């Protein structure tokens, strides 16, 4: 793996943000992230194998397939 100076938005055309969605405890703990590519890009994901899965997990897994 090659680390890129400047974080996930170092490559041109990428934007990112994070927020505290209340998934984890702690008032200001950022626990939800969004990374956006302004142009078509390859995508990959890892998903839970737990039987209890939110519909959004299933949707994202289908999008990444």
Task: Describe the 3D structure.
Helices cover 15% and strands 18% of the residues. It is α+β, with helices and mostly antiparallel strands and 65 residues long. It has one domain. Strands 1-2 form a two-stranded antiparallel sheet. The model has no long low-confidence stretch (mean pLDDT 87).
Secondary-structure element string = EEH
- According to DSSP, the number of beta strands is 2
The residue-averaged pLDDT reads: 87
How many structural domains does the protein architecture include?
Answer: 1
Query: What's the overall geometry?
Result: globular
Question: How many helices does DSSP assign?
Answer: 1
Main structural class: alpha+beta
Helix content: 10-25%
Major sheet, described briefly? 2 strands, antiparallel
List the uncertain runs.
none
The spatial strand order of the largest sheet comes to: 1-2
- The gyration radius over C-alpha positions equals 14 Å
**Approximately what portion of the residues adopt beta-strand conformation?**
15-25%
Distance between the termini: 23 Å
Features:
65 residues; 1 helix; alpha+beta
Short description, anyone?
This protein is an alpha+beta fold.
Which helices and strands occur, and which strands form pairs?
Blueprint (H helix, E strand, L loop, with lengths): L13 E6 L12 E6 L17 H10 L1
Antiparallel strand pairs: 1-2
């Amino acid at each position: 793996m090659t680390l890129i100076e400047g974080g996930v938005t170092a490559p041109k055309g990428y934007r990112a943000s994070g927020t505290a969605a209340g998934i984890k405890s702690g008032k200001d703990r950022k626990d939800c992230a969004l990374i956006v590519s302004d142009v078509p890009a390859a995508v990959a994901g890892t998903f839970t194998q737990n039987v209890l899965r939110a519909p959004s997990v299933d949707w994202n897994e289908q999008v990444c397939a």
